[in-house]
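Progress narrative, work stream C.
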Amino acid sequence: MKAEKPKSRKLSKELLNRGIEFHGHGGAFLVVGLRMGLAALKQLDARGWFDLRCLVFLKLKPPDSCVVDGIQISTGCTMGKRNVEIEEGDGIEAEFTKDSSRLRIALKQHLLDRLRAAQTDEEVKTLISDLMDAPDKGLFDLSVPN
């Protein structure tokens, strides 16, 4: 049975808490995934769960791979439904597809560098706060793939 209403397109404490429950802990890379998924839902006007596909490019190990859990929670694309796939990559980016529309979302390199350099709990908390509050254009480069 398909969900009746579209996935929420807003980052909320409830969505973050669902992500933490699913993933096992809160972290900046989880928040990046939540934000990427929400941006894709908005830009592609997708309902989520079944009308969206996602191909994620990132390092196939934590903490980078934690982004995938955020994408699964925010979009409803899941490994079980096989509408999310992962490939090895150097940065963090995802290509979302709805019908014939495609969107590529890439985390800005300076943010990825900052995420990877964070060492203390305080640095991570500051990053999470920044990621929660920033506009999409401050976090990501959005493009339409060829």
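Work stream C, second folded protein:
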Amino acid sequence: MGFILQVKQPTLSTTIQEYRTNQNAQVFMLPLEAFPGFWVNAYLVIIGKYQVLIDTGSGYGNCNDHLKARLYEVGDLVNQPVNPSTIDFVLLTHGHIDHYGGLPLIQESNQSKIGIHELDLRVLINPEERLKIIVKRLYTFLSESGVPEEKKSDLIQMYQLTKLDFSPVKVDFTFESIRMKVGPFEILHVPGHCAGHVVIRLHDILFCGDHVLNEISPHQNPESLVRYTGLGHYLNSLKLLSDWAEGISLTLAGHNGPIEDLSARIKEIVAVHQLRLRYILDILNKPKTIYEVSLSLFPGVNGFNDLLALEETGAHIEYLYQRGILAINNLESCLQGEGNIPFCYCVNLSKPRTDTISW
């Protein structure tokens, strides 16, 4: 969850929008206020006798009430019962709280079938265990990044804030176990923004979650925090989607408005990451920590965006380091010294500087 380095204020729609696939399935965009001032889109699809909900909002604050109200609004539009008890399937694009947090509302109301990708399964069935593991890894990442000690606890507390109250939920199927298809819904695994992220295709409409967004570059984590995230996985998944999505006429995202030209938007996002990588190389002519680079790459951020900036910077430095373009300048000191000595990265002068993204 979360996005930084916004070039301009994203375009938000706070009213229900209706779309139709080329085979006349009805699709309703349900804008939900996941957190104060932070909006997310869930989607209700009515196809034949089935009602399919794609993502659920956060379940935080008034978001569940918001979701219920949106479903009732759709019911009025189509002149049939639509509410949490009428949903047949819930398909989750990925395991971030603003997309799955409303699941308990749906499960307490009916017997709808819940599906998610295998790599995000434990987020739902054992959230306490997973949160403890990620918090431990996050503390190590912040220490190695050079974050001041007094700031670490604040960042970790912010990370946990919206996740502590989520209780385990029952999952009925995982996507790979059903061969990446639910009736007419086709599914593609696109790890990067989240380990188990998927995009879902229905006829000529694509539901892309947070994999591709209008006006905002989706947030990246270093793979040292969560396996199958990381910038390398994300860029590979963009290429995979670009090849898979032929014939798509409209892309509906987890935040902001629809994407009409998916190929062009993918190229714009790749260019954003190329620019960030080049900037990092320019400022690492002298050794710096991830924390120092983040202050330069994302100046003036605060609150939860502090953590997002560190993770985004870490993902880019990890990408360059894995490919031998960066080196750790103080490795021996870090290994031999007492306490948490942060890594200082610098350009690897023995490696020729070339295009930093092969895509």
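The domain at 17-122+167-273 is CATH 3.60.15.10 (Metallo-beta-lactamase; Chain A). No further action is required on this item.
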